[in-house]
Design brief:
heterodimer, A: mainly alpha, MetI-like fold, 0% strand, globular, B: mainly alpha, 2 domains
Chain lengths: 266, 282
């Protein structure tokens, strides 16, 4: 019995270490002074420095790339919710011919690799003059996020009883007012979690972002194109800069994670 | 409710238009671009099949998928069983396992580099323990087979949680009564795992396998950062053809190959699920 318990806790601790060690080590490595890093006898740094982070952000263009990443994510979230939320509502609250076909079509778009879409998109972008722009990347990321937003909002709304809305309508509210004042407030926590989830999807996407832009690169695209020719400590700083916001955000939505991935992976 | 139908379609219209414009249309033009040759529609594919790089990229993509996906599945099932015991503090373990879900392939590659770099922690520890004198090199064209295993390990680290989430969801939906019944009949834990839990998990395992295999054919960031074209993969070649050779046509051809593989795998998956439904109906 005791041996079983020890084995159990041993495996729990091993799993935790397996996942945490690389994360903790890159944070430490990002703050290690260069001479400590290149000294083979020093595993841990003698002091910590923000020099690499500072240089990455303000000399090597990390800050600009971070801002572009934020812009791209915010624009794609805004568009996805503006058009995806009504669609999600329609998918739960209305019965109409062709509904199953629409659902299937939206599911299908999720299994099309973005890699195929990227190259033809540049051709379109050059014609309409948004090649190498923030908007261009944001629209491509919207294509990635939108199907997820439709499916998840539809699942959130289906969890809120239609009777509340109907009660509101009996008291003289229009369907739109009833949605706005009754259903929407109830849906806010779930919607916020899915917005964060969408943010992480866009923040992490690298292939499309680096194919579509040359000068306006998002953070991962910037790193992909510069990291391997930079000294090691800048690589660690770059990894830290990518990881921190994502980790903070996933902490806030940890309760929703399982169901969210369930939907995003359908 | 004719009015309701119209409202529903109006609400859906912007989304459908957007998806047609930004996914449907580019998809079609990727195919037309790939199938437009000077003499025949298959010109591009002929030169693709004569290109040694393509075959190497296909080989490495398949190898990586073949190594990574089965290991991920086994690990994910083990992690899910561990979390599902709901021991005190299991929610912390759940959070830790889900962290890599929020990390991009670029981040994971850089974390892996932190460990395996010539002056990385693994080398430093080995040297300080006196096990090795000089750093072991894991990266570079000379050390391609080591690079391959580092990439495989990084992918296992990064994407096992994705499989884990699907398996755990499946595990949580298993009716407790089955397990209680097994207890009454005196099943051992082994028997419960192999006779009850795993068979009931089959749908989750199938969908996890499908999703991971599909993503495995799109592997890009980890490989590109850690090995560049030392280890060519299909998505990496797409990127190389467009960004470095400025050849949108060949880039589309590679993209289309990935899309076709994706479609074939999903088709087989759907087909096998459907045949199971038919069996159930007998």
């Amino acid at each position: 019995m005791v041996i079983k318990k020890i084995l159990f806790w041993f495996s729990v601790i091993m799993v935790i270490l397996w996942f945490l060690i690389p994360i903790v080590m890159i944070f430490i490595a990002a703050l290690t002074p260069a001479d400590d890093y290149y000294n083979p006898h020093k595993i841990f740094p003698s002091r910590l420095t923000f020099e690499h982070m500072y240089k990455l952000l303000f000399v090597l263009g990390g800050w600009k790339a971070t801002l572009i990443s934020l812009e791209v994510a915010l624009i794609s979230i805004a568009i996805s919710f503006a058009i995806g939320l009504p669609a999600g509502y329609a998918m739960t609250r209305y019965i109409f011919p062709g509904k199953n076909f629409v659902r299937l079509a939206i599911l299908m778009t999720r299994s099309i690799p973005l890699i195929v879409i990227a190259v033809p998109l540049i051709v379109v972008y050059m014609e309409i003059g948004i090649a190498d722009t923030v908007l261009g990347v944001a629209l491509a990321h919207t294509a990635m996020i939108l199907p997820f937003v439709v499916l998840i909002t539809s699942s959130i709304f289906s969890g809120i009883s239609v009777e509340y809305e109907e009660a509101g309508m009996i008291f003289g509210l229009s369907r739109f007012r009833a949605f706005l004042t009754i259903t929407l407030p109830l849906a806010i926590p779930g919607l916020a979690a899915s917005a964060i989830f969408s943010f992480i999807m866009s923040w992490n996407e690298v292939f499309v972002a680096s194919v579509l832009t040359l000068t306006n690169r998002t953070l991962p695209a910037h790193i992909l194109n510069t990291a391997m020719t930079s000294p090691d400590y800048f690589k660690f700083a770059a990894g830290t800069l990518m990881a921190l916001p994502a980790m903070v955000f996933i902490f806030f939505i940890r309760r929703y994670l399982i169901s969210m991935w369930g939907i995003s992976l359908k | 409710m004719a009015e309701g139908k119209i409202i529903a379609w109006l609400l859906l219209l912007p989304t459908l238009l957007f998806l047609v414009t930004f996914i449907g249309y580019p998809l079609v033009s990727a195919f037309t671009l790939a199938f437009s040759g000077e003499t025949s529609a298959l010109d591009n594919f002929k030169s693709l099949f004569q290109d040694r790089m393509f075959w190497r990229a296909l080989k490495y993509t398949l190898f990586l998928a073949g190594v990574v996906v089965p290991i991920q599945l086994v690990l994910a099932i083990a992690f899910a069983l561990l979390v599902n015991t709901r021991f005190k503090g299991y929610s912390f373990l759940l959070y830790v396992i889900s962290i890599p879900l929020a990390l991009s392939d670029v981040t994971a590659a850089l974390m892996s580099y932190t460990m395996f770099a010539p002056m990385g922690y693994i080398n430093k520890i080995l040297m300080n323990l006196g096990i090795t004198e000089a750093p072991i090199y894991f990266f570079g064209f000379m050390f391609r087979s080591r690079e391959f295993w580092v990439i495989a390990l990084t992918e296992i680290w990064r994407a096992t949680p994705l499989v884990f989430v699907i398996i755990l969801a499946g595990l949580q939906s298993i009716n407790r009564e089955y397990l209680e019944a097994a207890d009454i009949f005196g099943f051992t834990r082994r028997q419960k795992l192999f006779k009850i839990i795993l068979p009931l998990l089959k749908p989750s395992i199938m969908s996890a396998l499908l999703i991971r295999t599909l993503f495995a054919f799109q592997i890009f960031g980890v490989v590109w950062l850690l090995a560049g074209r030392d280890i060519p993969v299909l998505a990496g070649e797409t990127y190389y053809q467009y960004v470095h050779l400025n050849n949108p046509q060949m880039a589309s051809v590679y993209g289309v190959v990935i899309a076709i593989i994706t479609l074939v795998i999903s088709y087989f998956y759907l087909f096998s699920l459907q045949s199971k439904h038919l069996e159930g109906g007998r």
